[in-house]
Amino acid sequence: MDKEYLRIVTNETSVSVLNSAIESVRNKKMERASARVFEGGFLGISSSMSHADMDSLEKKAVESLSLKVPVNFSLPEGQKRTWDISGNSVLEEELLKHTDELLSKLTKANPNFIFSGNTRTQRMERHLENTSGADYTARESFLSFELMFKHKDSVSILDGALANVYYDSPDIDEFVSKYTDILNAFEKNVQIDDESIPVIFWQDPTIMSFFSRHLNGELIELKTSYFSSKIGEKIFSDKFTLNDVNYDPEQRIANPFDGDGFVREKHVLPLIERGVVKRGMYDLRRAKMYSKEPTGTSLRRYNKSSEIYPNCLLPEKTGVSAKSIDRALFVLITSGGDFQDDGSISLPVQLGYLLKRGKFVGKTQELILNNTIEKMFGLDYIGTLDEGMFDKDFEKFFAVRMNIQKG
Amino acid sequence: MNRGEIQSILAALSLKREVEYADLRVERTSSTSVNMSNHETVNAIEETNTGAFIRVFNCGRWFYKSLSSLDSVQKEIDSLCAIAKTHRGKSLPVFDSVRDSSFERFLYEDKGAPASISEKASLLASYDSISNRFAKIRFVQSFYIDKKSEVFFQSSRNVRTSYDYLGHEVRIGYRYSDGDKSFNDMYSFYSDDFTKLFGKENEIAEHMEESEKFLYAPSAEAGTFPLILSPATAGVFAHESFGHKSESDFMVGDEKMKEEWAIGKRVGSPGLSIIDYGDVPGNSGYCPFDDEGTKSQKTYLIKDGGLTGRLHSLSTAYDLKEKPTGNGRAINFEFQPIVRMTNTYIEKGDSSLDSLISRIDKGYFIKSIKHGSGLSTFTIAPLRAYVIEKGQLKAAVKINVITGTIFETLNDIEGLSETVELKSSLIGGCGKNEQYPLRVSFGGPNVLVKKMSVS
User: Fold this and answer.
1) Of B37, B45, B184, the CB nearest to A341
2) Count of A–B CB contacts within 8 Å?
3) Partner residue opposite B381 with nearest CB, options A24, A224, A336
4) Residues B171/B184, Cβ–Cβ less than 8 Å
5) Same domain, A86 and A56
6) In this structure, what are the phi and psi dihedrals at residue B281, rounded to the nearest 5 degrees?
7) What is the percent of chain A where pLDDT is above 90?
8) CA separation (Å) from B264 to A142, B18, B277?
9) Which residue out of A13, A24, A369 would a mutagenesis test of the B interface target, given it has the greatest number of B Cβ atoms within 10 Å?
10) Cβ burial B80-98 (10 Å sphere, 16+ → b, else e)
């Protein structure tokens, strides 16, 4: 019988902010664990988020073999390895002090705004071990500021968000300075009348979700993905390369082993390369089912089955800078839009800014942006910016042209 | 650990530790999840967890700790109280109005032996196979999920509440494809009684058959049109557009919001009422007592077009000098209660759906949706929509998004049908701040809106 044990331990301290003041301090240590057993072509699984020892989880997993859940792959072989991107993260005890300083400086610099949200330190360790020799540990830790802002004269429940993640001591002055520029611009209304103005997105989840969904290898094999008939074809701009990255300490990405314990050879896997759709993503189960190579893209929550999901989709930089674009619409909040399966998209923009050569000038009216996926990353693709827009962010920003409809 | 053992541990605890206030919430949750992917079972798992959340309030600040074991709960209470006592700040009489009380509500303990996981998997497989009748369905993902919770609460103010919750859901997600055309759809149903999940074959098949129309549906004409929102769509609108603005933690210390949301202000059409009420058994927002021990109140957020109420925790009720409503909720024992909705719905009117449709010359019927969200404007991404022409329901169309300004739309409601339907779900839920998903339900009648933007 083959066996696999997964344990995810999270230590977190969180300070909650309400009405620009500290409301609460919370500590928690959570441990999520699961055991999987493989025998005779069947899978048994058990899980817990309370205290549970692996022996009792394994016993339950063995009992659940009677449910005859089929499994077509063997546990991947491996060795003992540790990936640690913890760095010199801030101690929990210092979080209150940092939060006090942050709120004091932020409210002083921006007296017309109210802030709420939280600051957090988190240390996480993910350990996966199987009877084929894999014994993997990944550790990461960070401090984050996640605050929503609201203008004192606004009748919205929130007007926008300020966020940053730090892997060592936070530079609060820089955080306040960068976001004060944005908050100052928020107080100035501007109109976007130019329908061909470049639009800069901040790694928009709706846009990236189209790639996550349609580069799913199973949908491609079943001829039901947008990309099913386009593998190997050039349908996007030469400038557009989209990678799945599973490990990069500089960009703080640490998923070196996937949900089934598979470690792929290269950390950077091009899914779209110079406009050509190169490949879909496969976990061990679907790779075996469709005779493909696994791509290390199995996401498995501790109590769920594996699903195909990218580690981190990142478009490659193309030598474009926000400062090199005279005028742009920067989209800070877009919510509620979606793609149709034919690749068309509508995105309502709740908070957009006019940007002049990288500087935030003013808040735009609400807009709706329309386009198709092939045009966005084809003819209308300007490029992915070389630099982040905020302090020490590792997010990717890309610039495209959209059909702008006034809301 | 069973209910009796938890109650014994709680009975032996002391929360009076020289702080202004302390409480403890213990949750025992059992869940089942069965998942099929393209007709093959890929996961079948049962999980039982017990955990606790301690809150201590002292000199104007909350201190929280989450525990995944009850082994040393008194020690943890004492330790958190000791930290809270070191805090220097202004003492606030937040809990002075809290009175001794004790309530218990266990609805699901005498319902007979629960179904086995094999029976649940077998039920799911029978529904999953219905898609085989439709040649153009290329991909199917089916889920069975259930959750049984027992929640025990006690505070240093001698408040004790306990209750249980039970819900089951089946969801069949499927994807039609024909050449380069595809359409994703799903059918789901929920009950607090497992036996009521049977006999749904015809409903599922009819739903799958209707979906095929949308595979070939053209895109809708963009512009501003009158719309009819189905009960589930109206529920998302009520939840996203107005419900979140009724959560009063956004109002604390914000004079502009207090002015804007003054009770009595006219915010919608005459005849429009929106309610939030946790004590509606059989729905996924069922919550007879909140996670602060407050009994759920039936709160009219809007009554006949006027603003009549808002949702409160103990703290926000104190801050805004109103009464708590039983809306202090947490997603589980990892988190503190914050102001959240429960079952939120628009009250019924007196028209039939047909009569609402007959009033529209050119517009759309939004039958089901993918998702919705709401800030100053709200947006809904429709899934199934139909053209209405000259008072008649016509062809299926694809709509990317509908949007509206909240107050304009509330004032543009011109008709409500006569039956309210609530949509319950355990897969997904409501998200706020870091807490997702919270089980809620939402609904309403069919709602006629004079104009909304379609793109």
Assistant:
1) B184
2) 196
3) A336
4) no
5) yes
6) -60, 150
7) 81
8) 46, 41, 20
9) A24
10) bbeebbebeeeebebbeeb
Integer Cα distance of A184 and A163 in angstroms: 17
Number of domains chain A contains: 3
Residue B268 has what DSSP assignment?
S
Rounded to an integer, what is the distance from CA B74 to the centroid of its chain? Answer: 33
A231 and A120 assigned to the same domain: no
User: What are the chain B neighbours of A285 within 8 Å (beta carbons)?
Assistant: 42
Co-location of A305 and A322 in the same domain = no
- Judgement on whether residues A182 and A193 belong to the same structural domain of the protein: no
Cα dist from B59 to A333, B21, B77, B92, B292, whole Å = 37, 10, 17, 7, 19
CA distance B130 to A38: 30
Q: How confident is the model over A174-198, as pLDDT tens digits?
A: 999 999 999 999 999 999 988 889 9
Residue A16 with chain B: CB contacts under 8 Å: 62, 336
Residues A170, A118, single domain; the answer is: yes
Q: Is the pLDDT of residue B22 over 80?
A: yes
In percent, how much of chain B has pLDDT > 90? Answer: 88
Last residue of a domain, one of A282, A310, A338: A310
B97 vs B387: CA distance, rounded Å: 54
User: Mean pLDDT across the stretch B258-263?
Assistant: 92
Q: Report the distance separating Cα A199 and Cα A187, nearest Å.
A: 21
Co-location of A68 and A88 in the same domain: yes
**Selected residue of A148, A218, A284, A350 to mutate for chain B interface (largest B Cβ count, 10 A):** A350
Alpha-carbon distance A346 to nearest alpha carbon in chain B (angstroms): 6
Q: Which of B43, B121, B336 shows the shortest C-beta gap to A26?
A: B336
B202: part of which helix (H) or strand (E)? helix B201-215
Give ∠ CA B214-B215-B221 in degrees, rounded to 5.
55
Which chain B residues have a beta carbon less than 8 Å from that of A29? 66, 68
Question: At A67, which amino acid appears?
Answer: L
Q: Which residue has the tokens 């897969």?
A: B427
Pick from B286, B118, B124, B133: which is nearest to B189 by CA?
B124
> Are A376 and A237 members of one domain?
no
- Mean pLDDT for the stretch of residues B368-391: 90
CA A89/CA A139 separation, integer angstroms = 12
Last residue of a domain, one of A259, A280, A310: A310
* Domains in chain B with CATH codes: 3-213 (3.30.2290.10), 223-454 (no CATH)
Put simply, the answer to whether B182 touches A224 (Cβ < 8 Å) is: yes
The interface predicted TM-score of the complex, written ipTM, equals 0.91
What CATH number is associated with residue A164?
3.30.2290.10
Identify the residue whose tokens are 């990255």.
A245
Q: What's the rounded Cα separation, in Å, for the pair B367 and B371? A: 13
Q: Could you tell me if A170 and A303 lie in one domain?
A: no
pLDDT at A334: 87
Q: 3-state DSSP call for residue A124?
A: strand
Q: In the prediction, which pLDDT does A89 show?
A: 64
CB contact under 8 A, B182 and A218: no
Question: Minimal Cα–Cα distance from A23 to chain B, Å?
Answer: 6
CA distance B387 to A156: 33
* Contact present, A38 and A45 (Cβ < 8 Å): no
CA distance B65 to B81: 11
Q: Do B68 and A29 touch (CB under 8 A)?
A: yes
Domain housing A182: 2-186
In B216-372, which ranges are continuous DSSP H helix?
Answer: 231-237, 255-260, 314-319, 353-358
